[in-house]
Amino acid sequence: AQSVTQPDIHITVSEGASLELRCNYSYGATPYLFWYVQSPGQGLQLLLKYFSGDTLVQGIKGFEAEFKRSQSSFNLRKPSVHWSDAAEYFCAVEEDDKIIFGKGTRLHILP
Amino acid sequence: DVKVTQSSRYLVKRTGEKVFLECVQDMDHENMFWYRQDPGLGLRLIYFSYDVKMKEKGDIPEGYSVSREKKERFSLILESTSTNQTSMYLCASSFGQGSGDTEAFFGQGTRLTVV
After folding, report:
1. Do A43 and B35 touch (CB under 8 A)?
2. For chain B, what is the domain count?
3. What is the CATH number of the domain that holds A82?
């Protein structure tokens, strides 16, 4: 069965600094991969998704992610974070229509 | 805009009560999901439905059942609640894999407290 690992439970960065959130998956075939964000008290919002093609995908709010098959990774990046990016971020993988989530990474922003 | 609507935002129930959590989507999605979200555990899949009257167990189905009598509606049933079912419950829906786009859309969640 597929699984998703987000090794960092909490990450703290300064406003304006760059960000990388890690995600590793286990799945035999080419996966469908997603990053979602959940702001405090809000529902989950899709940031970006990878189905096929270009391994660098662009999303909303200035986020991007790179699919690396050799490393089974789909890391999320942003060149310069804003205080409003403080939230919880979830990586997810889809197999046979079932969507499985990682445990999430909570992002804290220092002023 | 896709809309996934959960019937309640907050519920408080006593141990042993039966609870129905309702979810409705308006995008004609084939797939519907129920997750529970707990701090440090992320979203865990309880049940998944890929068509009317069709369902599959997720990772944590114990203590739960589901019903999907109509395509737009997916209900989560807690037959006899226990305190360890206190959690945030999230409903989601998506198109089937044949559509080439399986992004899940989420409701706002139901925070259930069992006392």
Report:
1. no
2. 1
3. 2.60.40.10
